[in-house]
Amino acid sequence: xxxxxxxxxxxxxxxxxxxxxxxxxxxxxxxxxxxxxxxxxxxxxxxxxxxxxxxxxxxxxxxxxxxxxxxxxxxxxxxxx
Length: 81
Known about the structure:
Elements: H1 23-41, H2 44-78
C-alpha cells in the first residue's frame, strides 16, 4: 500500500459520478454490448472486433480515469498558491 504524504488527499472519484457512470454500470454496459454483438451476429470475428473498443473504453474509465483524477488533485494541491 502506498503511503501518502500529508499534502496528498485520497479521493474516491466514484462518489462524485452519477449512477450511470459507476464501475458496475460500466461493466454491465460493456458486457451487454459484447454479448449483444454475439447474440445478434453469431460471428466470433465480428464480436472480437466490436469488443476491442468496448474493452478499451471500460479499461479507461475503470482503471485509468480514477488514477488520473487522483494525480491531478495531488498536483493541484502541491502547487504554490
